[in-house]
Amino acid sequence: MCGIVGIYLKSEKFETLLGKMLSGMLINMGSRGPDSAGFAIYKKEDDEEYKYSLCINNISFEKLKNDLKNKISFSDFKENSDHVVVKSKDDPKKVLEIITSEFKEVSIVGYGKSIEIFKQVGEPKDVVKKFNLESFSGTHGIGHTRMATESAITTDGSHPYSTGEDECLVHNGSLSNHNNLRRKLKKNGINFNSENDTEVAAGYISNNLSNKKTLKETLKKGLNDLDGFYTFITGTRKGFAVLRDEIACKPAVIAETDDYVAIASEFQAMAHLPNVNSAKIFEPEPGIVYSWGY
Amino acid sequence: MELDLKKKNLREVNEKLQNLDRKQNQRDFTITNPEGNHAICAGLTEEMNVIIKGHVGYYCAGMNQNAKITINGNAGTGVAENMMSGRVHVKGNASQSAGATAHGGLLIIDGDASSRCGISMKGVDIVVKGSVGHMSGFMSQSGNLVVCGDAGEALGDSLYETNIYIKGNVKSLGADCVEKKMNKNHIKKLNKFLKEADIKNLKAENFKRYGSARKLYNFKVDNIGNY
Fold first, then answer.
1. Which CATH number fits domain A47-113: 3.30.70, 2.50.20, 3.40.50, 1.10.10?
2. Which of A179, B46, B108, B119 has its Cα between 20 and 30 A from that of A123?
3. Which residues 6+ apart lie within 8 Å of A246 measured at CB?
4. How confident is the model over A230-241, as pLDDT tens digits?
5. Pick from A255, A201, B138, B38: nearest CA to A284
6. CA separation, residue B210 to residues B60, B149, B163, B185, B196 (Å)
């Protein structure tokens, strides 16, 4: 099953309400995915610093902060439940390498100049509450409620998956060629943290984006390379896209107004959004990439 | 009578409509704030008029008998699935599998219906004023599917005795589905459906009819010896 949701704001009107809108959507989709939940929020940030969203698992914030101080320079260390967003001017390649090799207890859930990702096991309504999603503002956001099928119920098994700078992906469905594809992508230098099929799709997208393909081109290519059934919502710093496989077993509905585009597995997830009853509501057609931004 | 889904829960509303006293004369209901809930008005058996003001979720008006249900909005997956009789009218678009396995009654969709419209239909009449998605009429057994717009890929795949009438373009036909001649009876029947759906600007003569070529395995009498 699983539920997916996303909002892309076309105007500034609802930026301060983004977290609230997304939170309502995630809670409603708890019926499709009660195991775990997660969300990615793209914030408007003008500075050149990178942000690293980390899940600290069993270690303490204090220990991580002290140990990290000796390795990298950071300007901000924002704790949120069992996650922390660390801001640093250092070279991201170096930072990621240090965290991966020297902080093995910590999971990197995402990084970039704009993105912040939080995900955890538990009922979506609890996950949303513990990270205080309602208080977030931003330009676009993506969320997922999980009913596990392909891999274990763990933080690493939760969505969204982020395998590149300011990129993320949520998925409702199941991929059948993920093992082969994972092997190929590993050769191209993409790292994976789980056995999950969606992480492979995220890696596939990162790999193509790093080869200067646009989000739209990447997803179009994905129709040939990704085998299985899926509805994807994917985000980049300035872009947002939706794709359903050509058989379209997995549901999706889009509501578009002058101020926002919302997508969810079921309409009921967006019934609370402002002016949704006068929105243009349609079902994305199979095998067609719908994208906003770039 | 107004039934507000913000004030009453869904089960309460459905139970009320499902257990309508036969002697009751008050048979007009309006449901407000449906908010995409699933299974609204599922399993109604009595004659009544229900107007739903807003968008509904999955399986709205499923298993309907006798009731006349109007949805002033869009419908999710499986609207009027397994309908036996009555009339369901969607004023917006319908999602996948509209009218799936329905045995009777009339389903009218003013907008588009997405994939698998009329899948395995068993006698229902479906009129879609817009277009239908891929695999529509898949394994449909009886009844009529009328589409005023276009049809997606694999229309009428493996169908039995259903008549499919399409005004626009068909992207591709499914296995064993072929275009067939329209005779006077077909035109008469189609005119009846267009009238019932209040379609005045289209002529039955401009539609094309599709049906089964009856060439698949189960149509061959020789195969009966295998059982």
1. 3.30.70
2. A179
3. A223, A286, A287
4. 999 999 999 999
5. A255
6. 28, 15, 6, 15, 21
Burial of B211 (0-12, 13-18, 19+ CB in 10 A): buried
Q: Does residue B77 sit at the A interface (CB-CB below 8 Å)?
A: yes
Q: How do the pLDDT tens digits run along chain A, 294 residues long?
A: 899 999 999 999 999 999 999 999 999 999 999 999 999 999 987 678 999 999 999 899 999 999 999 999 999 999 999 999 999 999 999 999 999 999 999 999 999 999 999 999 999 999 999 999 999 999 999 999 999 887 889 988 899 999 999 999 999 999 999 999 999 999 988 888 888 899 999 999 999 998 888 899 999 999 999 999 999 999 999 999 999 999 998 999 999 999 999 999 999 999 999 999 899 999 999 999 999 997
- Give the side-chain half-sphere CA count within 13 A for A278: 4
Compute how many other C-beta atoms are within 10 angstroms of the C-beta atom of residue A223.
15
| Structure tokens that stand for B174 in this block | 């499914």
Q: Kindly list the distances between the CA atom of residue A41 and the CA atoms of A97, A141, B195, B218, in Å, as whole numbers in the listed order.
A: 24, 4, 51, 54
The candidate with the shortest Cα–Cα distance to A51, out of A34, A76, A26, is A76
What is the CATH code for B2-226? 2.160.20.60
The 10s digit of each residue's pLDDT in B91-118 is 999 999 999 999 999 999 999 999 999 9
Record the tokens describing residue B3, joined without a space: 């039934």
Angstrom CA distances, A123 to A9, A37, A140, B97, stand at: 27, 7, 23, 30
The chain-wide mean pLDDT, for chain B, equals 96
Location of structure tokens 């195969």:
B223
**Strand pairing of A115-121 and A290-293?**
unpaired
- Are the Cβ atoms of B38 and A268 closer than 8 angstroms? yes
- Closest chain A residue to the Cα of B54, Cα to Cα: A277
Are B36 and A282 within 8 A, CB to CB?
no
> Residue B134 and residue A253: Cβ atoms within 8 Å?
no
**Separation CA A155–CA A122 (nearest Å):** 10
Half-sphere exposure of A113 (CA within 13 A, CB side): 11
Residue B150 near residue B170, CB atoms below 8 Å:
yes
As given in the structure block, the two tokens for residue B136 are 């529509």
Give the ipTM of the model, two decimals please.
0.89
- The answer to whether A55 touches A100, Cβ cutoff 8 Å, is no
A3-44+122-293 is classed CATH 3.90.226.10: no
**For residue A282, which residues of chain B lie inside 8 Å, CB to CB?**
93
Q: What is the largest CA-CA distance in chain A?
A: 55
A2 catalytic residue (yes or no): yes
Domain spans of chain A, in order of start: 3-44+122-293, 47-113
